[in-house]
Design goal:
mainly alpha
């Protein structure tokens, strides 16, 4: 189904939504904190700068 470009984004989004939902549930169950970064957060750029400076 993921080869059909019209359905691929809907299926992929649904899969990630379910993963996020389960992760949030497990974090609440075990008393952990779930931090969700914004979609365009430059995490790889920050990590590479931090590693290069140390």
């Amino acid at each position: 189904m993921l080869k059909n470009h019209k359905l691929a984004s809907a299926i992929a989004d649904c899969g990630f939504y379910e993963f996020k939902r389960q992760l949030a549930y497990k974090c609440e169950w075990y008393g952990s904190q779930l931090v969700i970064a914004p979609r365009f957060y430059p995490s790889s750029q920050i990590c590479s700068r931090a590693r290069a400076s140390t």
